[in-house]
Structure formats: C-alpha cells, structure tokens
Amino acid sequence: MVRRAGFQFVVRTCALAFLLGLGCAHISFGQAPLFGSPAVGTTDAPINLDENPYGTFVPQSTMQPVPPSSAWIATPATQPQFAGPSPYYADPAWGQPVINPCDNQPWTWQILPRSIIYHSYLAGLHEPRLGIVVESERHSHDSFWDGTLGGRAGLLRYGTTDGIMPQGWQLDVEAAAMVRLTFDEIRDFETGDYRVGIPLTYGIDNWQYKFAVYHLSSHLGDEFAIAHPGSLANRINYVRDSLVFGASYYPQPWMRLYGEAGWCFHSDGGAEPWEFQFGTELSQAGATGFHGTPFLAVNGHLRQEVDFGGDVTLETGWLWRNETGQVMRMGLEYFNGKSSQFQTFDRFEQQIGFGLWYDF
Predict the structure, then answer these.
(1) CATH number of the domain that 308 lies in?
(2) The model's pTM
(3) Which residues contact residue 311 at a Cβ distance below 8 angstroms, ignoring those fewer than 6 apart?
(4) Residue 39 placed within a domain
(5) Which structural domain, as residue segments, surrounds residue 224?
(6) For residue range 242-251, what is the model confidence (pLDDT) as tens digits?
C-alpha cells in the first residue's frame, strides 16, 4: 500500500507539472485557453512598435466577455493575456534587467536559428555586415569608399528561441569582404581584405562567449595595379589563420562591454601572432520601432605587428533594431591609427566619414 500511495503521488505530481507547463506556454505565446472556447479580443491586432517596442499587455477591459459555460483554468479576471513580442524590457526607460527573470523557456535543438547569440561589434571594422562609408583622409586629403559585403548566419543551436537575447550554444558561419575604392570619377579598386570564420558561441544570463577559427587575407586591387605599374612587385601577402576567444557582457540593457583575444597559428606578409579588441556599445535595448534610437560605439584594436599599437574607431548616429536583433544604422565614423586595410597595415591614417550599415 505504501508503494502504491507513493506511485500515485508521483503520477499526480507529474500530471500537475504538465498542466502548469501547458498553462505557462499558453500565457507566454498568447494562445487560446487550454479548455473551452477562446476569448475573442485584440490579441491578434497589429502591433505598433513605435508606441511600445517591448510588447503590449492587453488589460481585461479590452477583452470581450466569454460565455458563462466556458471552462477556464483561471477566471478571466485573473488570467493575463499578452500580445506582441516577448517583453524583454518591460520598461522602455532603459533600466530593466536584460534577461526577464520569469523567462524559464526550455532549451531545444534548432536548425538555422533566426537570431545570433554573440553579435558583431558595431565599431569593429572587420566584422561581417553590409555597409558603406564615404570618408576623407586628413593627411593625404584623399577620399575613399570603404565598403563591406558580408553576412553571418546561425547553423545549429541548443538553447532558447528568444530573438534578441537567446540563451544556449550556437554554431555560426560568417564571411565578409572589406574593400577600398577611390572616391572619384574612376572608382578604382585599391585594396581588399577577405575574412571567413566559424564561431561557436554560448549565452547565459547577461553574458555571451565566442570561440572561433578565422582566416583573413589581404589583396591589392587589380585597378590600382594597372594604374601603378610595378606595384604588384611590392605587394605583401598578409595572412592570418587565427583562434579567437571573446566575451561580451550587458551590465545594463543599454550598455554592452566586450573584449577578445586572437592568436594566429599561421601568418605571412608581416602579420604576427597576437591581436586584441575591446570596446563598448550604447543604445536603447529591444526592438526600436520605426523611429529608432541614438547609438554610440567605440572599438579599440591592438596588433603585435605594430608593437601593440593599432587603431580606435568611434561611430555615432541613429539605429533601428528588429525583434531578432538585426540592426540598421546611419551616422558618423571617426578612425585614428594604423590602416584598417591590411595591405597597408603599417600606414597611419586619420579619417572621418559618414556611413550606412546593416549588422547581424
């Protein structure tokens, strides 16, 4: 009898946990009631992200009454109904925790997840993105187009399905070409850096980590070589095959701090083993809606081949972010230090320009 009573207690406990899990899923995803007819209300109405980019709580006064015969786990007066994206930041005043402490979403396997755990550095100039910057170099008085054509995608994740701040493990792939063209009527292709990588990332609470393998090589542009006979004889074969470890932390929803170290196990053309990046990004958290939000991003990049000097990049302007964390930006860029084009890695440059970027 004791064993039977214990078995019945376990069964009842599991059944209760299962029902509570279904109830939580119902509340999280705004589905119909578990039992009875669904309430007819405004939960499927279009969402105005400009008014509230963090999700909309629909009070019970906006819900139509339900038939008295309908069965509910909780009464309509106490059962919450949500519409819109998950409210990561319930208060748009930039002050709530980054991770919703009530979010206990289970970890699952996902093929081609819709978002990224470890986002690219906004002011990092060798990150995968779509972007173009028109800039003027102070010392030579030359003007350039610095363009980036690249992207990043998740291949496999074991974690949550959150769009902006997912938790778990994820394997990504990325590639980008960073090219420089003269800003004149000819638009000569001068130099280009090419990078491909496979990052393994991990997110837990407000922390994100990255371990990656990268290949980067730098090349002289064909149009520059044609316009400058003999330049091919002086080009360098700058190559880095690197292992990279990075960490990112959000002390506040509107602030990101990060740092990474890279060590190349194969190098050529003047590249030496160690490099370091660090910086910060400031912008309102969550999906921004149509009006967007201001942003500020600063990145420092130190390299052993220039005696651990390097460069600093500052970008500021206006930013738009969607529900999966992808970002569109426009604004000013200031660069000071050794050239961001590694074909001329030892040349000092000071630039100011205006850019458009789409970041993953």
Answers:
(1) 2.40.230.10
(2) 0.72
(3) 125, 300, 301, 335, 336, 337, 338, 339, 340
(4) no
(5) 109-359
(6) 999 999 999 9
